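Job type: complex structure
Entries:
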Amino acid sequence: MKKIVSLLVAAAMCMGLCGILGSCNNQNVIYVYNWGQYLSRGEEEGEMDILAEFEAETGIKVVYRTFDHNEGMYAQLKAGASKYDLVIPSDYMIAKMIEEDMLEKIDYENIPNYKNIMEDFKGLEYDPTGEYSVPYTWGTVGLIYNTKMVTEPVDSWEMLWNEKYDGKILMFNNPRDAFGIAEKKLGYSQNTSDETELRACAEELKKQAPLTQYVMDEIFDKMINGDAAIAPYYAGDYLTMKDENPDLAFVIPKEGTNRFVDAMCIPKGAQNKAGAEAFINFLLDPEIGLANTEYLGYSTPNQAVYELLDDEVKNDGVSYPSQEILEKCESFVNLPSDANALMQDLWIEVKGNK
Amino acid sequence: MKSKVPAYPYFGWMAVFTIIPMLFVLYFAFIGDDGQFTLDGFRRLADPYMIAIFLKSLWLALLTTIICLLIAYPMAYILSRMKLNTQRTMMLLVMLPMWMNFLLRIYAWMMLLENNGLINKLLGFIGLGPFQLIGTTGAILAGMAYNFLPFMVLPIYSVMTKIDGSLIEASQDLGCNFFGVLRRILLPLSFPGVITGITMVFVPAASTFVISQRLGGGELMIGDVIEMYFVGAEPNFNTGASISLVLMLVILIGMGIMNLFDKDEMEGMLI
Amino acid sequence: MKKVGSKLYLGLVFLFLYAPILVMIFFSFNASSSKYKFTGFSLRWYARLFNDSALMEALLNTLIVAFLAAVLATVLGTMAAIGFHNMKKRSRGIAMNISNIPIINPEIVTGVSLMLLFVAVLRPMGLQLGFFTVLLSHIAFNTPYVILNVAPKLRQMDKNLYEAALDLGCSPVQAFRKVVLPEIMPGVTAGALMAFTYSLDDFIISYFTSGTFQTLPVYIYSLLKKPIPLSINALSTLLFLLVLTVLLITNIKDIRQSRREARGLAG
């Protein structure tokens, strides 16, 4: 009896192993590395499962993994720890990766739908020659607040320093975004690498540290459930949160803010470049793009998709702010590495003050 | 049976999977990005704010250890005096939460401690609060004590079961009061278990990084700093490895001191 | 009075240990998608859980890794413990200290250092992190626990037993199987169980060494972002019930066994 059981167990294990190895050997697989919750996967009814659609149409299976900050993604790729066929980092990180020769040139011939991308989004600062990336989404950072808890008018980053909301203020848990807010508050550029300015920002952030909780995507749960009063985050995510909690409101502070573009890139060493390009092309399809954009709430750089959107979405000022506001926005560029290093050291100092 | 040969495969194994990785750490601790010898990493560690974070981590780990010890010691004693079958069931109950992934356990604590969470809801019913629980040092301590408590109960319990009950009775008959029994019988005999328990709680508590991030509202412990230097925006293996090395040394020295008291080479480790 | 006191104390500690888990179990049946408001009974989170193919894959991966890692670590560790036992006290001390490094070391350091090793070896070969690197890392941090569990049993064993067996005509292998192994078996099983548990639970080391291969904890970590799907409560509940069942079955079997033995002795 015991022997039979152990035989069965062994057989089960072997089958499992074959499954694991088998999936590695399968040629028509692409490995995609994207931000968490950044693709419509049909989790709720009425949403499209894009990965399934793609597999049905092309026969290519997608192994989908997620990261929660650019730096974590960068560290994984840099260490050579894992190979992906497609990654979706943000602008400044793409610039860094191009500089360090970590990206493969994309063959735009294989992406006929690239024509749908708005001209404004081609050849941007992070990829000036337009050879390495295809824009996926863009958006702005603003203040999300709970109108039940914050009754005074909100129009400035100052609110994140307001002692009245001690413990209910959330803040970006990464140096680049956190310093970006302090920089705007003090009227500096978000791309400063000046040591005095960075140190002044650190002083500012140190004052804020005891009042805040440092979070990234936990912001969703905390804002939706009314655990926190105010948080800086992305416009598109605000729309997702507002669906669950109508008390939330969004504003782009008067000091200006960060505007980002996230774009699809193919890292060096990709095993299935053609598959990745097919997937990019699929995502740029107007119908697929629309389903995805509606799910994400982020702004689309895809003209064909934009035209299909409801007027309400185009005009509510959240995803597609007015030109006047956009002029006050700044995009991150890749900083020299000693500025990044200084910022990281100061960041630890800031958080040590919590 | 008199031969060392069975350990040979493991010697090879340790060389590859224990010693070489440690050499990597050692290498990066002293060699900068440019391949030159440097002490920059250690210099950074000497910054006052870094020392403060380091000491805070050790302090929180110490508090966690004390909390666990205070809860676990009476518990282990009570359990060890129960009927054998009850003991077994009880120990399973102690172990059971350990089998749930610690990320799930932390999530459960997030539900309890949030500003709007269940503890504040309950307190609200009796007209108290709400209190700021999440994002505080207290939340980190609660989370760590919860996570590591079984590691303290297990080793103490296993030595307690070996203490002969008649010894306690005899000392009581001879006029020992409760504290006498505790001081003269229980503590000395359960000492190896206590030592093991302290190690098993203190070490992971001192170097944890997820708990402080999730429950402490991003409060930094030394584990967080190490993580940041290895997978942060500007990975600096030199600094990360230097801090790791110092943390390792501090813990090793601590263990060495503990082992001076414990002649029995971690006997209490047994389940 | 004293009894009541200790029962109360145990009750409080168990409340501390189980309240968070019970809360998750309770809310796994919540009909609404609110984290704190229970609006009614529903199984929707369970339905969603079972539709999650990535989760099922991660679960299978974890079980396979934990099983293989526990078996291999137990063999390696038991052999090592026997070898260590036969060494001189001084060299044994050194060997034990090296062996204990993965236990003493902050997990994050172990994870990072193994990642550095694997990448240095695999990268030139054009290979990447995955199943095997996770398995190797798990064996690496599990084996010391097996040794720590087996070593005391070897020390407690009567040294003359093995000699006696040889004198009575056993071959060394027979003597090991019939005399030594039964003596140290409780330590071996405890070690194997501990290895399996740690392997199932490990997040930090897998996080650094898994690449695109996903174990359950790594998958759970990826869930703990963005709006946390409440199916996580359902997942916790199922895992809890699974472990409870396994432990109950083994426990009941043990109790029956000991009763039978007792009866056998009496008869």
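Summary: The radius of gyration of chain A is 22 Å. Residues 2-25 of chain A form the longest helix (24 residues).
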